Amino acid sequence: METRVSDLRISKPGWYPDMSDEDYHADPCAEPSLNSSVLKVLLRRTPRHAWTAHPRLNPAFKPKSKDAFDVGRAVHLLLLGGEDRFCVVDADNWQTKAAKEARANARASGMIPLLAEQFEKLRAMGWEVRQQIVEDFGVELCHGKAEQTLIWRAKNGVMCRCRVDWISSDGGLVIDFKTTSADATPEAWGWTVAWNTGCHLQQAHYVDGIQTITGRTPRFLF
Predict the structure, then answer these.
(1) pTM (two decimals)
(2) 10-residue stretch averages of pLDDT, the chain, 222 residues long
(3) Is residue 162 classed as helix, strand or coil in its secondary structure?
(4) Can you tell me the distance from the alpha carbon of 195 to that of 139, in angstroms, rounded to the nearest whole number?
(5) Residue 8 near residue 28 (C-beta atoms within 8 A)
(6) How many CB atoms lie within 10 A of CB 183?
């Protein structure tokens, strides 16, 4: 059972393994907290931009629309054992009335609608990634925990939070999954996509949280 915290504000730093994705992104902390997404905006733009991007500070904040198909999120769920979150629609596209109704019903039930062809391609992508992790790092994703929420206070007193994609059972390895339509070779991705999207800031933020809560510095991989 997932911990629902929509009407609850967490003040105690710690590890919250069963928090839903929706509750995390809505910011469940007792006071507005800093996550890596807002941190990137704060450091790269202005405090006002960061205020606007914060779900608790900005009264007019609206989360990104779920109507757009997000390949990255879908692969993420498939990798981390979220197949039960999908509703596979047997249609060639979303243009027919039946397909549109099936998509709407799926979203109303909290499911993520996918066309059958999309689902099979994404499952194949997820399998390849799992195999590469085993080959490169000698670890299987079943030997760890997915979607882990951490809440802590930074040394300056600011309440922070992060949601770790996957962490090994011993806490020594963290993997964050990214998808890109650009060059995915380590050299090209590292010097372009990773730097431009602030992955180094995300890594520093996550490691700080894990160190604060567990006292251990994990190896962090994208």
Answers:
(1) 0.83
(2) 55 90 91 96 95 95 65 76 82 92 86 87 87 86 88 95 91 87 83 88 96 93 90
(3) strand
(4) 27
(5) yes
(6) 12
